[in-house]
Amino acid sequence: MKQGRSGFVALVGKPNVGKSTLVNAMAGQKLAIVSPKPQTTRNRLRAIVNRPGAQLVLVDTPGLTEGGDALRQTLRRITGSAAADADVGLAMLEIRGIKPELDDMDRQVLAMAQRQGLVVVINKVDRLPDKAMLLPWMEVLHGATGGAVVIPVSARTGDGLEVLERELISRLPEGPFLFPEDMVTDEAERAIVGELVREQILLQTHEEVPHAAAVVIESFEDGRGDDDGLCRIEGRIYIERDSQKGILVGKKGSRIKSISEAARHEIEALLGARVYLRLTVHVSKDWRKNERAVLKLGYGDNE
Length: 303
Ligand SMILES: Nc1nc2c(ncn2[C@@H]2O[C@H](COP(=O)(O)OP(=O)(O)OP(=O)(O)O)[C@@H](O)[C@H]2O)c(=O)[nH]1
Ligand SMILES: [Mg+2]
Known about the structure:
Radius of gyration: 20 Å
Largest sheet: 7 strands, mixed
Order of helices and strands: EHEEHEHEHEHEHHEEHHEH
Low-confidence stretches: none
Bound molecules: guanosine-5'-triphosphate, magnesium ion
Shape: globular
């Protein structure tokens, strides 16, 4: 295996700050799902960024929240262990207002990401009416972390990402590369396919429904080598109650049809093939409260 600077960088932050968006931007392709709703990510996902002389493995994690149900506890564990296993911690936050004030969860984020080479990232700078707002926050964060470097970026526009990448690479240990150079992720395609379905549920439903949904890909017939080149995929969507089932399916099946249609386009882009996608909706009562159901639906066992 090639040599160079290589290692794991774990992204830690509150929900919705833009961790998955940054991972996709640096990987140069969509691997992690993104939505405007908090608690989008539910699994650890590794994106392998290959550069001349360096291999940066970005580890996306679920946004940190307080305790709560079995699912949230599992998500917290996933984030904690990804951070503990990383060579470099990347704590991401977005700034709120002019006066810099760190709340309890910000401190937890900083503490969890604290490694020898902590890097603090302030994301979404494209939204700031005035860049001067950054300075007091940068000072507070620098102070609160005992002198960590603070880098403002926009994962959306790409602003600051080159600086961030250089900074991260400089902190990685020297050694053999961890993955083959043509690899972009070690995540199974099948798992990403399930996530792309869940992304559409997050984007196309509201209130409790998106968070009560889990997706399991039941069968994946990879037809990329066949004459018709068609991939046949069947997935099951689990939600917590009958009433949510009605909402998800929609009038005469209109919502599930629209979810399936949009997910199919995304999956075709991922696989580079035509896709036949069949989705069915099922109830797994209050699964988020039940540790075994959480595990069964695919969360927390990817170690
Ligand atoms: N304006 C702006 N929006 C951004 C930026 N980065 C992310 N977003 C948006 O912020 C929202 C959340 O992004 P995600 O990448 O899903 O956030 P996350 O931190 O992964 O969230 P969880 O998975 O819930 O922890 C989405 O609507 C993104 O489009 C940015 O740099 N600028
Ligand atoms: Mg995310």
